């Protein structure tokens, strides 16, 4: 089944990209933005049909590889 | 939060240091004040274990404009030009998060340089990793290299030279030392000394977040199992903002608005404001509500101790606020007037209309602790007596193959191809040579720089090792035709609280001091990184020396690649056959004991200066210093680079050939000269009593050592180039 | 001959380009990204660097800056616009040349000399150039040129490929492709051949003491062609 993972920078960690994207949006006239934070999105098709187990597998991947836990958090979403 | 001894100890202060704080203040500090003391009094900022010994270093000289004590050292390169340079460690953060740790290390050192008004023109680095077999090494190496490139490339400053080594003593503590050179006009150098009352104190750059709170304290403690808990303190670098900050600062500096400027590095706003006040013998008052913050609800404690990157503190002339703000607005950077200079000689902080800290500046600086730590003198190890039998089984060709492909000798092209080394259009000697060389933009001058360390020698005998590193730096500059001018040093050691490690520090410093004094090669800046240890095990003592030299006419620069068939190769300096602590002894004979090669400073100076005079007279076609791996390694590299071979003269030497080829005796160079110049060259060398001998003559693509020992240049190249790339791909 | 080099926040080869253009006789002006009008120019150059930190996508935010509308108009009216490295990435993001530049195949920044072959000399950039193979210098992280098959056909039909990575004898094959670019493409024109985007940096090859001198040949020829 397909599981998605979203990796974002931890709250207190500076996001240089988000900051500059925000400034550019401002410059383009999108002046109603409070903050932009950029992250990564993964779609992983796991050979596992039990949603709980599938999530666990992806969670393990996140903590061991996909996310850099020093500066990033991850969130797991069941897609199908 | 209540402050007591326990809280102080949690901040890394010793119980007696806490007592001293209470006595100096005549009261108990509040939490913000305690945080400030802990940041100012830790090893990283206060140099409390090292200060006593650092005083021995020679820091003055005809060419020195500014020695240690400022953001960076400054040397005179004539015609009103000056070079600002410094090396600094970012070891602990790089082990925790290699990309960001290395990146912010590079960012920090560049800020130190442009704070003084200089445009960075070259970066260098010295990076040391654990054994290649250690499970963390590959990822750490990849992350550090990406981080250094990621920051330096984006800033548009070429990375022109560096050093990479592998040794199992760095398994739990890698070293990342970054060095930057900047160019400035002598009359436009900016310092950190505040002056004048009621001058506005300005904050510029990025906003303040909760990054790296207590990063400086982390660099002052050993790693233990709890390392995971320290992770959130990692800072994220933003080279784009730093590039803007660089341009904005240089734009403001072209006028006369700035009285003092200081970058917010370790211990952020705390150390920058206190340093400016201390140097100016003034007080400083800051309204923390005015500090631009990235996060909600930051406390005074967090604001003062944040190590968010890409920030500067400026004391401005009255009435220049508007002009300055305009410049920072143009570059889209935060600009805030956060305080003023005062005559109280105290640092006073206000938050929500309340005073949250009030500390006499001198208690934080002059009265900071200074320790005369116990240390043990190292004995000079006994020389190994090698029996003839150990050599009989060896073949020159096999040994050379092993040495050229050794991780500490092999080509580091995989690394430096990831660094932009040609941006700014003045790099005339790329990484891979004895020194990197950049032209002084728009002039005939060039500046050479190299970074060196010899941890194995320092470990075997710190005093000799300390001398040797300085001598090697001196030789690397001379080999490219530069007159060595001054050095910066980054002293990476284990815990100063351990007598052996402290002894290594003290004696390495003595060795460095002795050599730099003798060679008139003064120390103008540097940094100390202690506590490079995991539990009880410290790293091998690793002082990194960054040397800088001047080439008056860049067209006279020398490179190491062999130039012309039929030219002669001479060896300058005597080969005594010192094998102990050589790469040959350690990797081929598996012999780890014995003394490092002796450093004879008279010979170093005499040989080096004689070579410079030969270069001045245009006799030298190529040159290379002989160091790690010995003579045969050095000539192999010259062959590989020039894609030419050499036919050796029959060796008259009485030494066993392995000793001759792989000994690491000091003070030696290989030079290429034209046959027609031989008489004149010999005359000069003889006049100066420089030992020299002919090694061979340059031929097409083959190295012919004797009838039986022949290698093609392609063979040599394949030994030398493949190791690192294969390792990273495996 | 007048040229203008645009400085974006994060540009870092703007000075190098200025030095090169002046060395070969251009009267060059630096133009700030936030200006809206271009000075009268015979050539506009978008220099290398890391505009906006290469954040989001390389060149994406620079392509939205104020001056770019004027650059686009200038290009559409037939003016010469050259983008080098990050400048090429900006041209692509602005839609002035087709395709995209992806991350290098080996996921690493790469800085070294390369050989490039030019096959189309029917344009102001390469007309009258004696050599067909030039030694240039690259320094980039995102130079892996990519486009769809339809685009590629169109590009080839219109002779829009300006430069190919090759060996010193002009052989074009995967061994001499430093970044994974489709067809070894190192540079590309727009349909009218007045806009040129290329990854290599000719401005770093203008002196024997530097990486080489083929950049000098390029600039000398360029100014003669514009005259």
Describe the protein in words:
The complex is a heterotrimer of chains A (80), B (730) and C (227). Chain A has one domain (2-78): Phosphoribosylformylglycinamidine synthase subunit PurS (Mth169, Chain: A), CATH 3.30.1280.10. The mean pLDDT of chain A is 89. By secondary structure, chain A is an alpha+beta fold. Chain A has helices at 16-27, 51-66; strands spanning 2-9, 39-45, 72-78. Chain A is 35% helix and 28% strand. Chain A contains 2 helices and 3 strands; from the N terminus they run βαβαβ. Mean pLDDT of chain B is 94; it is low at 227-231. In chain B, the strands form 5 sheets. Chain B has a 7-stranded mixed β-sheet. A 7-stranded mixed β-sheet of chain B has the order 23-25-22-26-24-27-28. Chain B has 730 residues and is an alpha+beta fold. Chain B has 26 helices and 28 strands. Chain C has one domain (2-226): Rossmann fold. In chain C, the strands form 2 sheets. Chain C has a 9-stranded mixed β-sheet, sandwiched between helices. Chain C has a two-stranded antiparallel ribbon with strand order 5-8. Chains in contact: A-B, A-C, B-C. Chain B binds chain C through residues 146, 149-150, 153-156, 238-241, 243-244, 331-332, 416-428, 439, 554-555, and chain C through 9-10, 12-13, 15-16, 19-20, 48-50, 52-55, 108-112, 137, 139, 141, 201, 203-204, 206-207, 209-211.
Describe what is shown at a glance.
The complex is a heterotrimer of chains A (80), B (730) and C (227). With 730 residues, chain B is an alpha+beta fold. Chain B contains 26 helices and 28 strands.
In CATH terms, what is the architecture of chain A?
2-Layer Sandwich
Relevant CATH superfamily of chain C: Class I glutamine amidotransferase (GATase) domain
Number of helices of chain C: 5
Low-confidence stretches of chain C: none
Proportion of strand residues of chain C: 25-35%
Average predicted confidence as pLDDT of chain C: 96
Instruction: Spell out the helices and strands of chain C N to C.
Output: EHEEHEHEEEEHEEEH
Oligomeric form: heterotrimer
Q: Structural class per helix/strand content of chain C?
A: alpha/beta
Following the backbone from N to C, one meets helices and strands of chain A in this order, namely EHEHE
Q: Into which percentage range does the β-strand content of chain A fall?
A: 25-35%
Estimated radius of gyration of chain A: 16 Å
Remind me, CATH topology of chain C?
Rossmann fold
